[in-house]
Write a structure and sequence with these properties.
Length: about 350
């Protein structure tokens, strides 16, 4: 499902891209519980159209690619999930069509959200065999008591479910109507989203979209704190990769227009070898300093620009910049800390 940004706060998942070893781009298959991994594939199916028909007699379906979980593992505690790894979401509305196709043990389909890892997440699911709809919370691998209601979810038909989160508030709909009471939970404040099934349920998903408020990552909050603590700074950029061995780019900055700027040779040198860089002109001095993890290995680079003054030397420039870097360093143990 290649992410195609319609605007700054909307994401539609396009099922035509199969570049990720047969899976949608930026998704990975994970398994909760026991049994064999799920089998997620793209296949064609007849799906209701995006818009209502002008006439009740007019056909409003078309054949197009859908996401299908087709593993038929009969293990009871078997939860195949497909997680979108592209970014985290906090406040959002996620909507998807789904169809319960077959299943001996279960016919179920659901949405995972605020996913932290395989042991910590929320999910909602529809059950055709049980005629129920439910919300669950999984913490440290333990599934809590559900919030569950009766619901008519016929198999072999397309339905629509949605999840809306607003800080600690969670609202869920089925086929456009509220299906659960509004929930309040503070356990997870954000995370990844994905698809969920159980046991041998063969389930399809289509037309998945998410409207969201872009999350402010920890790195941006850290830079904001630095600018308050050191208001005389002329500029500040934090370069970091998303994962080790990936190129670094500006992930937080004094000027938002700088975010996304890619690394250059000096930034690569700072992160790879822990070197420091110094530059000066008549009005400004700039230093680039490594940010290290708890083991002392460079994981990022901070570039600080300050006003120059007569008699300024390289030594006293670094002395002015080090407290800025330390302010950041105290909040970082691992690369992942920038993205929480």
């Amino acid at each position: 499902m290649t992410g195609c940004f319609l605007n700054a706060a909307e994401l539609f998942f396009d099922l035509t891209d199969k570049s990720n070893a047969g899976l949608p781009a930026d998704f990975k298959s994970v398994l909760g519980g026991q049994g064999k991994p799920g089998k997620w594939i793209i296949r064609d199916d007849e799906v209701p159209g995006y818009f209502k028909s002008f006439s009740e007699k007019a056909l409003n379906t078309n054949v197009r690619p859908v996401l299908a979980q087709v593993s038929e593992d009969l293990t009871d505690e078997h939860f195949p999930m497909l997680i979108y790894t592209g970014q985290n979401f906090k406040n959002f509305t996620l909507k998807t069509k789904f169809k319960l196709v077959t299943g001996v043990i279960e016919t179920m389909a659901g949405i995972v959200f605020h996913y932290q890892d395989i042991n910590n997440y929320y999910y909602v699911r529809a059950s055709g065999g049980g005629n129920t709809f439910a919300f669950f919370k999984v913490v440290d691998g333990q599934r809590g008591e559900p919030v569950r209601v009766k619901a008519d979810v016929p198999e072999g038909q397309w339905h629509t479910m949605s999840v809306t989160t607003d800080d600690s508030k969670i609202r869920v709909t089925l086929n456009g109507k509220s299906i659960l009471p509004e929930l309040t939970d503070y356990t997870f404040t954000g995370g990844k989203i994905g698809f969920w099934t159980k046991s041998d349920a063969v389930s399809y998903f289509a037309d998945t979209e998410i409207q969201y408020q872009p999350m402010v990552i920890a790195a941006q909050r850290m830079v904001g704190e630095i600018m308050k603590a050191f208001p005389r700074l002329l500029n500040l950029k934090l370069f970091a990769p998303r994962k080790q061995d990936e190129p670094a780019k500006v992930i937080a900055a004094m000027n938002s227009s700088d975010i996304g700027e890619m690394e250059n040779d000096s930034i690569r040198d700072v992160i790879a070898r822990g070197k420091k860089y110094y530059a000066k002109n008549k009005k400004m001095v700039t230093v680039t300093i490594p940010v290290k993890d708890r083991n002392g290995d460079p994981i990022a680079a901070i570039r600080v620009s300050m006003k120059s003054f007569p008699g300024q030397t390289q030594a006293n420039t670094f002395a002015r910049a080090i407290p800025v870097a330390e302010h950041l360093q105290q909040r970082v143990l691992y690369l992942e800390d920038f993205y929480r």
